Every structure is written in C-alpha cells, then in structure tokens.
Amino acid sequence: MALVIELLKGGLATLQDYLLAHLPFVVPAFFLAGALYALFPKDKILRYLGPRSPKYISYPMSVAAGLCLAVCSCTILPLFAGIRKSGAGLGPAIVFLYTAPATNILAIIYTSSLIGVDVALARIILSIGFAIIIGVSMAALFPDKISEDTTNVAAGQAFPSVQNSPGSRWLWAFFGLLLAILLWGASPAIEVLKVKLIGLAPLLAGLVFVAWRGLGRDNVLSWMRETWFFVRTILPLLLVGVFVAGMLRVVIPAEFVSRYFGSTTLGATLAAVLFGVVAYFPTLVEVPMARLFLDVGVGRGPLLAYLLADPVVSIPSLLVVRQMIGNKRLLWYVAIIIVCCTAAGLIYGFVTSL
User: What is the mean pLDDT of residues 55-64?
Assistant: First the structure.
C-alpha cells in the first residue's frame, strides 16, 4: 500500500511540475498547429515537405524547421500532427518530429557549458544525422499513398496560394505572432510564470487584433475547430503519459541508474537509452540530470546515449505518436532510435577512452 501511495505521489508531482513548467508553450503549440492546418496554404507545405518533393529539398527544410523551434518531445507533437495532417510526407514529418527536440539550440548551449563542448557538438551533429536516417528509412519502408490531389498540390495547383488567402501580410503577421508567443513561452531564461504572462500580454493583444482585422470570422472559427481537434486528440494521452512516467521515476531512481552505468559497455549504454525513454524530463532538465550522472561516475558513452534519446522519445510522446502513425511505424521509429543512440554512445565512449 505504501508503494502505491508513493507511485501516485510521484505521478501527481510530475504532472504538477509538467503543467506549471509547460503550459505557457504547450498551449500556444496547439493553437499554432490548428492554424497551420486551417489557414496555412497547403501548397506551401506540400511543395517543400510533401511526398512528391525532392528529398534534397524536403529533408533539409524539415531539419531547418526543427532547428528553429526550441521545444520538447511533447510540445512538438501538435506541430507534427498539424503538418502531417496538412499533407507533409512521412519522412520529412518524422525528421521534423525528431529534429526539433533533439537539436534544441538552448539545450545544446546548456550542454556545452555544463558538460562540455565535445558532448554538445556530438549531440547536435548526431541528432541531425539520425533524424535524416530515421526519416528516409521510414519513408522507404512505409511509403505514403500518393493520390492525384496530392500530386496536384505538390505542383501548386490544388490549393490557393498565400496571396489568395485571408491576406498575405495579415496571414504572415498572424503566424509570426503565434510563433513569437510559442518561443516566448518556451524561453528558459524567464523562469517566473508571472513575468512570462506579462510578456505574453502584448503578443496576445496583437494576435487578437490581427485575427479580427485580417482573418475574418469563418477563418477564425476554422482555426478554433482544428485547435480543439488537436487538443482533444493529443492532450489526454500526453497527461496520462506524464503521470505514468512520474510513477516509474519512483521505482527507477537516479542512484540506481548511475550505479550500473559507470563504463561504456553495451548493457550500460543500452540501459542509458532505455532510461532516457522511460524517465521523461521537461525540456533542458535532461542536461543537469546528465551532469549529475557524470558527477557520480557515469561513463561519457552512456551519458551521450542518454542525452541523444531523452529529449526525443518519452512515454507521453510515444502514446501520442502511436495514434498518429500506427503500431508498425512506431515500433520501427523506436527501434531505430534505440539502435542509433546505443551505437553512437558505444563509439563515442570508445573514442574518448583512447
């Protein structure tokens, strides 16, 4: 009975911490995802990220889009769902899903200052490489069904261009404000929630003004409908996953992890990756956790493997991704991430030990 109480306390504490830390940018992510699907001209997405787009364009564009967002594996889910639902190819969408949390610029800088430049460089280079490998392999194994409409869209024929949308300038201002709200809410430099809310006030006022003047009633209603679709589809699974991860952290303490990860062995490196999958931490928290592991004797190989895996996959994100791409694709996605991160940790540990 005592264990059950501790598990519930761990789940509730993690859920509380998650809501307090993430609401300022999880909520804008849902609104941005709804706007992407409802308002952003789909020919723009499909022209660069669609299944007919050349790989030398779609994959670098996905990486670049991911690099622009400093978000965690859960915050990226509404955006992934938005571009996927809008017609983006599976490969580029997966690259975007992987890159955004893995190459979080803020986390890379934090890693460099807290752990070392070598680990930070390895983290960003390997993350980009893994994202492309995973995206290309999934697109090859699970090709999208390309309809005639999709072909026309890729050629820019099926949907009106942005100039014929609510108004080109108004639309770009609208998306710019949504992105600014997301980035402001995600900024770790501002830790006080009250300060974040005060800073969000003028951005929200600007967003309301632009929506009122430039979008029109029908477009705003469409935006709200799509936002609600993403909220009711994703948020329940997200909260359940965070709660379960919090309970698991009670039975898998950091002390136990560090005891068995002292050297770069296959078992230690694989266990570090699996720990990163199970023990979900909010954005940037994985860095001080990694520093803690390093201080208590964890090898640099398992440490890098953990840093590569933890931001990208977690129980909450996997529950949601499963609903979006299905069981077979999810199994391959998880398996190749585990293999890539484990191999990278082993190689890095071997090289640094020379």
Answer: 85
